[in-house]
Amino acid sequence: MTDASVFDEATFTIIPTSLSPERVQELTHNIESSGGTVFPFDASAGRLKNLQEILYIVTATTDFPDYYRALDLMINVVKPTFIDACLDSGKLKNPRSYNPDSALFMSEVVVCCGDIPEGDQDAIAGGVIAMGGQCSTGLSKTTTHLVALSMDEKRCVIVKQKKLNVRIVLPHWFDDCLKVGRRISERPYLLPDPEILDIEAGAIPAPKTNLDIRDATNPEPMSPPVSTPPAHLEDPRSIKAFADKRVKLGADLNINARLRGTIAGLVEAGGGVVTENIDEADIYVCNYRDGDDYITASQAKKDVGNLSWLYYLITHDEWTNPMRRMLHYPRPRNGVPGFKKYKISISSYTGEARVFLENLIRAAGAEFTKTFKQDNTHLIAAHKTSEKYEAAQEWNVSVVNNLWLEDCYACCKNLPMTHERYTYFPTRTNMGEILGSTEIDRVATENMFFPTPRRSQPAKPKAQTDDVPASSVKKARGNSDLAAPKSPLANKTTKRKAGADVATPAPSRRTSGKENETPGTTGSRSAKLKATSALHNAADDINKFEQERKRKGGVIHGGRRRKGDEVSEQAKGKKRESSSSKRSIDEVDVDGTTEEDEATEPATKSKKARKGPLTPIKYRMLISKDERWADNKDKESKEKARLRDLGLFIADDFKNTKVDLLCAPRIVRTEKFVSAFACGPTLVSSKFIDDALKNNRIPAPEKFPLDTTDYEREHGLNIDECLTRARQNKQRLLKDWQIFCTPGVAPGFETFKKIIQANGGTCQAYRGRNAKLTASRREIDVQPKEVSQNLVEDDGDVLYLISEPSRTEMAWWKPFREFAEKNDMVPRIVNKEWLLCVAIAQRMMWKKEWELSEERA
User: Fold this and answer.
1) Please, what's the largest Cα pairwise distance for the chain?
2) Helix (H, G, I), strand (E, B) or coil at 722
3) Domain ranges in the chain?
4) Fewer Cβ atoms within 10 Å of its own Cβ: the N or the C terminal residue of the chain?
5) Sequence-ordered alpha helix ranges (H) in 342-396
6) What is the pLDDT of residue 331?
7) In the CATH hierarchy, which top-level class contains the domain 219-328?
8) DSSP string across 651-693
9) E strands, 313-423, where?
10) What DSSP element (H or E) covers 242?
11) What is the C-alpha separation between 624 and 622, in angstroms, rounded?
């Protein structure tokens, strides 16, 4: 039953696009029965004539002609769910939480936090609210997501028992959404069996067809559009795209007279007319962002799009903003500045997504290469689990996700790749899911291609009475020269302070260049722009230096090697493998077609460059405590290149590369060695590398075994048996374990965290009161057989704290014991020897000498 006063004296208009007639009728009835007034939408006109009289526009999308004009007039644009929420609560809700702007990617999320640390709850709540979502303290019928760490949490039990339509996710989902600035699929994060914690989850699924790139994958249509449907079949809910509109076709379209006549006939069939006078035109269609007509039309706020956009309007007979889909807007004639020197390949995108990226790369001015070679400058990847990605890591080719390319094209600027959102790949997520969700940056495009004259403004044509007023351009200017998008959480903090005095914030116009800007932030940004303009001018050089500095070896020795460093004279004389040994990087599309992509050597004019294909990798090796390259980066670069040419790849990190060989002078207990030991690699001595460099070939690993006698004697272990258990465990020895570590334990919390994670566990810094237990009792009998047999000495209810025998560390011990007992666990405070021995033994073991107590300390 509705409250007759909820919408008292409020006026509404409902945009019927994407809504069924039944839903429109229901919304109209609910508004009017609650005191509101609904102005009918005139589908024949396709525009809102009485806009000044409307307080709320109800729509499922911002893709309607008067959207930006509505924002200028401070009219609330809300989703249909706003009406439902107001009626359910009996009072008006905050319209900002129901804004259909895609920049507010959490707008449909109502999150409830389970028993997770208070700091995590605050961070999640802040991020969700900043991105348009809502938070609730308890479960309600509006809750969409419950954040928890296990299904044992009481709220999870309620959701399961009552079969509520609530998605139970790990907090990692929110972190990853905020990092990439988009709402990604919850699938890999859903409890009780989240894929991101499963090291054997298999291939990452291909994404579903993305509506953001539907009919917008090519700026140059391959065939004429289909005719509009007969009158008796027309959808009465469609916005008439050409009703009473004048369309001018640009000279740079290069279409023949016959096709021009066909297009004119289709426009006229939709109620419009083709004109040759740009001043009369409402719509201008062209290929490139230049020419007098383009500038005149853009400055007058006419609709400017390309032929692909025009075909979309003809085919669907519904209006869409040409800046909504990037390849619906005219291209920069010379591409994005700096992109002509780039050679870009893509990995793990299929179908329409692949076509879209190929055309976007070309539109940006770069060279697209189907075959991935070492002379490629960039690889755009959907995820990390592909051979192209591995090859790019070996060759020092820059790897980014599609957001970098989209943002560069959106603002027509070569943005630095150092921002985390461009190099971050959420676990078990295909970035193709969010492909095409970026819009053209209005302010950046205006400033670069059609800056509005400051003084005398041309009179606005009569045909433009319903377009965006010029005042909106001034209000929209702000961050068009943004070097790189800020993190969503940073935006949230800044804007909360800036808009603290604003009672009812206006919805975001999405014209500042920030993907995740919080709507409602008002005030002048001119002082900020002036203060940062000098820094923006130097941003490219600074970021390039920073990128090079972060490479292994620094600015001098990182990046691409000098010509004389690639291969020694001895390696150059070695006979190359036949062309049949090329490393093939084949990727199979979802439709079953195979892309023959090969990773080969770079093309170069240097006589000293390699001419044969890159030798396939035979072994991947991790080296620890070998000092042969200490303080000699030049030698390291040369010898690693020689070893790679022989088929031996030296990895820097065991996590992203499967380690076959672990090389050290002896058994050492470094972070790299102990972590990589969990992979079950073959252990070899440093003489293995000596022999390979001396004889220019890879020797048999068994000829250079690592001497483990001293370690075995000291710790009572058989290393061969330990390696056998490691292969059985498959990095799952500590799966479902939560191990605490005091922040001050030497050599540092991060070291032990990496070792624990390498064995499938989680590590948390213990700081006393704020600790939260995320792992319940471990059930040994449900462990995989090969792992459970190595856990026979674990009772399943012991909670470990790694600490140091010092007076400072003792302060943590008593509260930890109380914390463990409160959670029905047995506390055990141990020194670091416990973890190091367990990680090498690859089985759960216990010695009393590892336990710490106040008496012994």
Assistant:
1) 96
2) helix
3) 11-98, 110-199, 219-328, 332-453+574-602, 563-573+603-726, 728-850
4) N
5) 351-363, 387-395
6) 95
7) alpha beta
8) ES-SSSS--SEEE-SS----HHHHHHHTT-PEEE-THHHHHHH
9) 343-347, 367-368, 378-381, 398-400
10) none
11) 7
In the beta sheet, which residues pair with residue 14?
58
Give me 36's structure tokens.
Answer: 């509101």
Which of 103, 172, 95 lies closest to 134, judged by CA? 95
More confident residue, 317 or 368: 368
CATH class in words for 728-850: alpha beta
Q: What is the DSSP string of 247-268?
A: EEE-GGG---HHHHHHHHHHHH
> Measured between alpha carbons, how far is 42 from 46 in angstroms, rounded to an integer?
6
pLDDT at 118: 79
Q: Confirm or reject CATH 3.40.50.10190 for domain 563-573+603-726, answering yes or no.
A: yes
Judge whether residue 136 has pLDDT over 70: yes
Per-chain mean pLDDT for the chain: 77
pLDDT band of residue 445 (cuts 50, 70, 90) is very high
The architecture of the domain spanning 332-453+574-602 is 3-Layer(aba) Sandwich (3.40)
For tokens 């179908």, the residue is: 351
- Three-class SS state of 638: helix
Name the pairing type of β-strands 648-651 and 619-623: parallel
Whether 371 shows a pLDDT value over 80: the answer reads yes
Q: How many CA atoms lie within 13 A of 319 on its CB side?
A: 25
Contacts of 45 (CB under 8 A, 6+ apart): 240, 243, 244
Q: Is the pTM of this model over 0.85?
A: no
Burial letters 37-48, b for 16+ CB under 10 A, else e: ebbebebeebbb
Give the E-state strand segments of 207-334 in sequence order.
246-249, 273-274, 283-285, 303-305
Pairing state between β 762-765 and 826-830: unpaired
Which carries the bigger pLDDT value, residue 523 or residue 84?
A: 84
CB 308 within 8 A of CB 218: yes
Structure-block tokens of residue 37: 């007034």
Highest mean pLDDT among 273-287, 427-441, 738-752 belongs to 273-287
Distances (CA, A) of 605 to 340, 610, 688: 20, 10, 35
Structure tokens at 311: 């075909």
**568 with 608: CB under 8 angstroms?**
no
Does domain 11-98 sit in CATH 3.40.50.10190?
yes
Task: Name which residue leads in pLDDT, 78 or 554.
Answer: 78
Q: Which residue has the tokens 């994005």?
A: 336
Pairing of strands 762-765, 167-169: unpaired
The region of weakest confidence among 265-269, 438-442, 490-494 is 490-494
Given this structure, which CATH class describes domain 110-199? alpha beta
